[in-house]
Write a structure and sequence with these properties.
The protein has one domain (about 5-100). The chain has two helices and six strands. It has helices at about 50, 80-100; strands at about 5-10, 15-20, 25-35, 40-45, 60-70, 75-80. Strands 1, 2, 3, 4, 5 and 6 form a six-stranded antiparallel β-sheet that branches.
Length: about 100
């Protein structure tokens, strides 16, 4: 089985507010999109507060299924499959580490 994967770096000024399972609003920054076929697109998000944090601290990154409808509305759904989360992370990690090294 072959997988087509692409990673797209995003404008980190874009903020997204999602509601957690307890009904709390959490603000995230979209740091990238990973496309894996046949699974689809995945958004890599980090809490906004971590963008202003200490550069030595590891950044929490959350992976969501990502979709854009015909009207341009974005949707984010949590990924429940831990194996899929790991595969997406494995694809995204080298791309973002390389980009980080260029800064």
């Amino acid at each position: 089985m072959s997988e087509k994967t692409t990673t797209e770096e995003m404008d980190t000024s874009e903020s997204i507010v999602l509601v957690d399972s307890d009904g709390n609003e959490v603000e995230f920054v979209l740091i990238g999109i990973v496309e894996m076929e046949p699974e689809g697109e995945f958004a890599l998000l980090t809490p906004t507060e971590q963008m202003d944090g200490d550069d030595d601290e590891p950044m929490d990154v959350y992976i969501f299924h990502y979709d854009v409808d015909e009207d341009g509305a974005e949707s984010f759904a949590p990924v429940e499959d831990e194996e899929l989360v790991q595969r997406v992370a494995d694809v995204a990690r080298p791309e973002f580490e390389a980009a980080e090294g260029e800064e």
